Structure formats: C-alpha cells, structure tokens
Amino acid sequence: MILNQIFTNQRTGNHAQTVVSRTDFQRDFDRIIFSSAFRRLQNKTQVFPLPGSVFVHNRLTHSLEVSSVGRSLGSLAGEFISKKFENELSEEANNFYLYQLNNVIAAACLCHDVGNPAFGHSGEDAIASYFEKNEADLKSKFSEKQWADLVNFEGNANAIRVLTHQQNGKDEGGTQLTFTTLASIAKYPCEAIAKKKGHINRKKFGFFQSEKETFLDIAKSTKMVEESGEPTIYKRHPFVWLVEAADDICYNIIDMEDAHRLGIISTNDCESLFIDLIKSVNESDERKVKEKLNFIGNKNERISYLRAKVINALIIKSTTLYQENFDNILNGSQDKALLDIFRTESPSFQEVERFSIERIYGHRSVVEIENAGYNVMYELLNHFIPPIILEKEQRKSYDKKALQLLPAQFIYENASVYERVLGVLDFVSGMTDNFATDLYRKIKGIDIGMTV
What we know:
Strand content: under 5%
Strand order of the largest sheet: 1-2
Order of helices and strands: HHHHHHHHHHHEEHHHHHHHHHHH
Distance between the termini: 58 Å
CATH architecture of the largest domain: Orthogonal Bundle
Largest sheet: 2 strands, antiparallel
CATH topology of the largest domain: Hypothetical protein af1432
Mean pLDDT: 92
CATH class of the largest domain: Mainly Alpha
Structural class: mainly alpha
CATH superfamily of the largest domain: Hypothetical protein af1432
Number of domains: 3
Number of helices: 22
Oligomer: single chain
C-alpha cells in the first residue's frame, strides 16, 4: 500500500537519530520557527507596502496563518485517510495520518515562502529579468540547465535551496528538515528546463541544478511518481495539495481584509463578497452569519468575523474536494488545484478574484512598491554579479570593493561560475525589504555615512 510509504523521518544531512520529547515532524516545525530565513519574513512584503500607518500582513504573518489553516486541513485529511484505508494501513502509517500529518502540513506551510525575495513577486521578476537582459554577456558562462534556473528564477525552487543548502561555515543539510516536509512544499517538482504552462506540476519549477541530487533523494524517499527522467519531472506529492489549498485560502481572503483596513475597499463591498462566498459553500450558513453581524458594530470586527467564517467554509470545501479527488491525487493524474475546482463552480469565488485583481493588486500603492522593488533588486544584482563572475586575477579594485560587501557564507571562490552566482542570489534574495533598500541607497550614493 503506497500510503504506507509516502512519508519518512529521514532528514537532510547525515545526523544520527536523537531521542527527544517531540516527534520528528514537530521538530521540523520548531526548526523553521527558529531559523533566520523564517525570521526575515517579518520584513518582506506580502502585498501592501511595509511599514505603513496601519498594520497589514507581511510574509511572516501570512505564513503563520497559512500554517494554522494547513494544520486543520492536515487533521481532516489524516482522519479521512485513516478511516478510508484502515484495513490497508500499517500501524505506523495509521498513527502518522491520525496524529502527525497535521504537523507535516503545518511545518510545510510555515516554510513555503522562505525562498521568496524581498518586494513580493517583483523581486522574483527582477532576478529573472537581470539575466534575460544580460544574456549576451552571461549565457555562455552556464550550461543550458543552469541558465534556465537563472532566467526563470523561482521562489519555490529557492525555498528548497534555502532549506537544504550548506552555506560556507555552516552545518550540512541546511535546516535539516525531514524529506516528508520538503516534499510537501514541492508544488512544481521538475527542473527549470522542463517547465511548461498547462501542466499543474510544471507551471514553474521546483529546484535548482545545485539541489537536483537532494531533490532526487527527497522524491525517492517519499515515493513521488516519476513522470520523466530526462528532463527530471515528477508528479506532485499527495501532501502538496493541502499546503497549496491553505496558501490559496489565506491569500485570497486575507488580502481583502488588509485592503479593507487600509480603506482601499469599502465595508459594504467586503461584507457582500464574503457573505456571498459563505453562501456558495453552504447556503444554510448565510442566515446565521447575518444574524451574528447584527450584534457587531465595529466595521473591522465585522470583517474579521466574516473572514474567519469564510476561511472555515473554504477549509471544509477543500477537504471535501481532497477526498473526492484523492484517487487522482494519489496516482498523480490530478490536474487542477483544489480551489481551482471550486472556482469553476462558484461565481462568488470568481468575483472575489476579479475584484481583488481590479481593486487591490492594481492599486497604486501596490504597483509603486512593485516598481520600486524591481529596481532595487535589479541594481543590487548589477552591483554584485559582474565582479563575482570574474576570476580573481581579472578583478579591478572596484570589483573587489563590491565583493567585500558580501558576507563570507555567500562566497564560493573555488566553485563554478554558476555556484558563485547562486551565492550572490542567496544573499540578495534573502534580504528583507528594508535591508535591500538601505543597501541600494548606500551603494548608489543616496545615503552616505557610517552605520553600525
């Protein structure tokens, strides 16, 4: 029975098992919480500019909320699997699905965004476009697959690197998470050269060439279904769908709440959209929700209450869809995300998405931060990439000065050009919004002076 084999407590790095009071998957959660990569998410843009006069979500608060939703989805899915396959599961597997799957999904949700650079998706775009715009000077220095990594730079692939790569002077295996948790964040389990629109597992890509062997170990240990050996393509692991659903639930709904707090959308519009969405999941809930709203006068509290009800409704809907499509999910033939299935049958959910694109993601403050972030990230790469690709003896004094700003753990002088460039990307993509902006202003001469 494949469900007995798709999880493992094996970790990255060669470390002996230790006896502790927590399970291996609870330890994953704790390791992420205490990691510097997770901590930096507190100053990375989710949608709206940071900081502002009104507190809005950043990547860290978003990840915490996704993790909370993911834990609920993991619990419900685990109960379903345990009951449906009770005669086929080993005792170990049954205990895993009943008591540990929720911890796996919560941990995976917690770290699903650690590879995202500053300034949201515009940071990703800046990194990819830097290499596209400098193709004539740079492409010949890389293999075809290495070049595909760079011109398609992707936060999902970068997350695998952040969590598993051994930086200079640091321990083997990166954060040393279990292969099960790492498999659960691999939304696009293929290499960059294999990405292809129209295929849910290949819409983007899931690992750089530098982490390919690590990813193959993850895939093998968690029994992921191989689609192709060359180029490397796998079907999604069954747990990925739960992590994706948790993320989709949160960003679709909580961005609305943030926009309301900022005064970008009205209370009436937000309430109407949320109530219609609740009704589309369970029509009988509409009356109860409206009755409750009669006792809530504060407009922010009204939206917070509706947000909670919507999230609960979408958790239940996602769980139902996971159960209904579980056979396809298990054999790798599922071709649509859980909330995408719901979107096709729910005009209310379609309206939330349309409204968000028009009124929230197109708002001037969002577009301004995307433009600013793009330019900051692009210029930082333009400062560090040209000198790092040169051999030591070719560097002029200004090249050496630029590289003195790179922390030692990101410098791989004796490695290939590809590895040296990835070191720079590790540094730049790991920056917070504020750090990236401050460094940009200093190297451009906008701010001059000593800071400690």
